[in-house]
Design brief:
The protein is α+β, with helices and mostly antiparallel strands. It contains twelve helices and 17 strands. The protein has two domains: about 290 residues, no CATH class; about 55 residues, no CATH class.
Length: about 350
């Protein structure tokens, strides 16, 4: 056990330890490299039109662009929930907030330990103290309550302003994309004007007008043209994932060297599991991605001087280390607590 526990200690010192672990994984649609992929669409704002997030570089060449397929936040939301199920569930405490008839695991809360749902519960005082401890240079209390908040980052923006950076970040992008359009039309099963639901004149006026109540309720023909039709990634699709060892090396338990080492080992174990996890290939409708067998994955240790060495670490290696590190650190207590409406109302008034 001691050999396994100390296996990665050279990664945990801020003096000469490496800067990061980096995975670069080439992906492709299940249909093939030339398959159509549907990126996420975003609402427009501040004068910008909504749609796909495609950044273009240089008007002289249409190929110079990058399209966001899955953001850092979205990837985190896909990876973090693995800790709710075996064998990963034993690595962390199970914290559930009961709100009415609904139970929400802290892993499902958008802001993790900083989320309003968690803050306005029986955990309020403990969480406040844990975030205050972060400001004082002690991450152990938060690690006992919400350790994945150390891995995926947290910001107590509504209270203490304590903030921890992400240790693990992952993004999927497509390169040199060709954006496509698609069209469709809804055809009602019967002519409702002939059934005297409305007149022929009302039908003619409503058809093609998506804002018409008759169109919105599905009583007339509704064409949809020029809508988003996905992209073809001429330059390929790539997942870039990073475990920032430099950020992990900043975690401390005050001036206690032994407890600091134990905390860093625990956080590293969880982060390694998250980094190497094989998450779902299904991102959304029309976006089902798998590794490209013709382009092997790169997994390297990046040193502070820029050297890059093969990491040589599997997911099973990561899990084995995480289990030993969690046992040595002492996983926090699992609890089910109630959402407090009074606390929420008081929080709103702040």
């Amino acid at each position: 056990m001691s050999n396994v526990l100390s296996k990665y200690d050279s990664w945990l010192t801020g003096h000469d330890g490496p800067a990061a672990l980096v995975i670069r994984e080439h992906l492709m649609p299940v249909e093939g490299e030339d398959g159509v992929v549907f990126p996420p669409t975003f609402a427009g704002g501040a004068g910008a039109s909504g749609g796909y997030n495609i950044d273009s570089f240089g008007d002289d060449n249409e190929d110079k662009n990058v399209c966001l397929i899955d953001s850092v936040g979205s990837q985190a939301n896909r990876i973090e929930p693995i800790f709710a199920d075996p064998p990963y569930a034993a690595l962390i405490p199970r914290i559930v907030v009961k709100a009415g008839e609904k139970e929400v695991n802290i892993l499902e809360a958008g802001h993790r330990a900083g989320d309003a749902l968690v803050r306005c519960s029986e955990l309020q005082e403990e969480l406040h103290a844990a975030f205050q401890a972060i400001l004082a240079g002690n991450a152990q209390p938060l690690a006992k309550m919400a350790p994945t908040s150390l891995v995926f980052g947290v910001w107590d923006s509504r209270d203490t302003q304590a903030k921890l950076p992400r240790l693990v970040s992952s993004t999927i992008r497509a390169f040199n994309v060709r954006a496509m359009k698609r069209g469709a039309v809804y055809v009602p099963p019967v002519d409702y004007s002939k059934l005297d639901v409305f007149s022929e004149a009302e039908k003619q006026k409503a058809e093609g007008n998506t804002k018409s109540p008759l169109a919105q309720r599905g009583f007339v023909h509704v064409p949809a043209t020029g809508s988003h039709g996905g992209v073809i990634a001429k330059g390929g699709i790539r997942r870039d994932a990073t475990l920032s060892l430099a950020a992990l090396q900043l975690l401390k338990v005050g001036d206690d060297a032994d407890r600091t080492l134990s905390l860093r080992r625990y956080a590293l174990g969880l982060a390694l599991v998250a980094l190497t996890a094989n998450t779902s290939a299904y991102l959304r409708q029309g976006c089902n991605l798998v590794p490209n067998p013709d382009k092997p994955r790169e997994f390297v240790v990046v040193h502070r001087d820029g050297r890059r060495d093969p990491a040589g670490l599997s997911h099973q290696d990561a899990l084995a280390f995480a289990e030993v590190a969690a046992e040595a650190f002492g996983v926090g207590e699992s609890r089910a607590v109630d959402f407090d409406k009074k606390k929420a109302k008081a929080d709103v008034k702040k």
